[in-house]
Amino acid sequence: MATPAIEILGLTKDYALGHWRPGKRRSLDNLSLEVQDGEVFGFLGPNGAGKTTTLKLLMSLIFPTAGTARIRGRSIQDVRMHREIGYLPEQPYFYDYLTARELLDYFAQFFGYSKAERRERVGRFLELVGMTQAANVQLRKFSKGMLQRVGIAQAILHDPKVVFLDEPMSGLDPIGRREVRDIILGLKSQGKTVFFSTHILSDAEMLCDRVGVLVGGKLQGVGAPGEIVSLEVKGMEILTDLPVGKTLPMPLAANATATGQRYRIQVPEAELYTAFDQLRACGAKILTVTPLRPTLEDYFLKLVENEKAASHAVEVTVP
Amino acid sequence: MSSNVSIVAINTFREAVRDRVLYNLIFFALLMMGAAILVGQISLGIERLVIINLGLSAISLFGLVMAIFIGVGLVYKEMDRRTLYSVLAKPIRRAEFLVGKFGGLLLTLAVNTLLMTFGLAGALLYVNRHFMASDGGILIAIYFILLEFALVTALALFFSCFSSPMLSTVFTLGIYIAGMFAQDIRNVGVMTKSPALTAITRVIYFLLPNFHNFNAIAAAGHGDPIPLALVGWNTLYAILYVAIVLTAAATIFAGRNLK
Hints:
The complex is a heterodimer.
Chain A: E1 6-16, E2 24-35, E3 40-44, H1 51-58, E4 66-71, E5 74-75, E6 85-88, H2 100-109, H3 115-128, H4 144-156, E7 162-166, H5 174-189, E8 193-198, H6 201-207, E9 210-215, E10 218-223, H7 225-228, E11 235-241, H8 250-253, E12 256-259, E13 262-267, H9 272-281, E14 285-292, H10 296-316
Parallel strand pairs in A: 3-8, 3-9, 6-7, 7-8
Antiparallel strand pairs in A: 1-2, 1-4, 4-5, 9-10, 11-13, 11-14, 12-13
Helix pairs in contact in A: 2-3, 3-4
Chain B: H1 2-18, H2 24-42, H3 47-71, H4 76-80, H5 83-88, H6 94-128, H7 136-160, H8 165-180, H9 182-192, H10 195-207, H11 217-222, H12 228-254
């Protein structure tokens, strides 16, 4: 069996509450996860769920309380592993006295490229992230979105096999977000593994082969976006136009929203044909019928609610 | 290893230059010009001594201020602004990064000192009209000052690995001052005739960097010869002390969780 691109084994991270306060706060709890070569993996979770902690652990910026991880078969403690990975930190900040071109050139030097190779690479990746015009401007003059673009360029500059992106869409306008999505899809088409954290579920649904949902430091579920949510149909939605002067019969009207004479009606699947009969009787024109399935967002919100309820339950427990 | 160290060192030097650190040279130039003109008018036969003392003291003071105030922020600033995240995700060890930062600041100090040395030479030439054979001692005194900078930078970097810039400044400055009086501290212990105090002050003496040995300003001013053995011992001492301090700093930094 092929070695997974990313292998996380029981990674746990506790933080001390403070210098003078005893006790610890668990930020990540026994995370185990595998990401296969060539996969685009979305790491989802609300703010404070432990996504950035996980990425920082994988980059050895912080050290685990327990557990370990391997990237392309190498321990995360092995500095050689860093030749094969790229990393975009959350809200990246770079040396503001350097220009974008100088920064990328500085980073490229760690990979041993010749001066000519560096010049070619830096130019190519600045163009990829749409920063050619600002290449010679000092980073202190860059907006958040521009820094994000430079951050993405430095993460993929050396052609890494595995790319870690911490909230890559953060701070970007719709055009920028679309460009980042295209970059991620481009990386996938080159066979790269992409592991990115986000709390924007539509991005995850659009880009990911699989997602993992992290809430309160615990992994709640892993799977393809379509698998992770139940495929069971919750009901049917009928979009219909009603003739002027006609009104919806009562059982349907209770579950309908109207825009002029156009109605969006939700009915249980078993009552679909009864609803058709009622609509036909009042002369309605049925435009579309769509099955209602839970979205990733529904699943996500449910998990967050469950977590909140659980933590609340702990707080009120009588000793 | 050496390649990564030099990449970081050159970038640190570039940072210092762009942060206008070398602007202190303007003050030094003004000081030297003012002193040269002034002592030419008021001193009677001691122009050379005054210029050398003033010039070397200014080189030492300006450099020490830079070594301490830039040194304590070298790593702390990178951690605080999180610029370190992207760097450490590259194939570089934390120890290499740390030594590179040290090398970069030392390079900055060396360039700064070299330019100041030209300024001092110019002022000497102005008051003396020619160089003397004993002026070679000035270069040795400057070499000792550079060794001193290396020690102070290493200490500042060491403290900045685990404390805030303000505390690191206090610690570094404290050790520098105590190090100037290392021999006196040892003598106090001996004078008390208490075996315990003698032992304690002896340990302190060996732990503190002995900065007194690096001060050759008076000898250079008076044209006294500086023994070559002292040059050798000071070089060896500085290399060993810096190596020990940087190893300790690298050990602390290697295990540090970045915020």
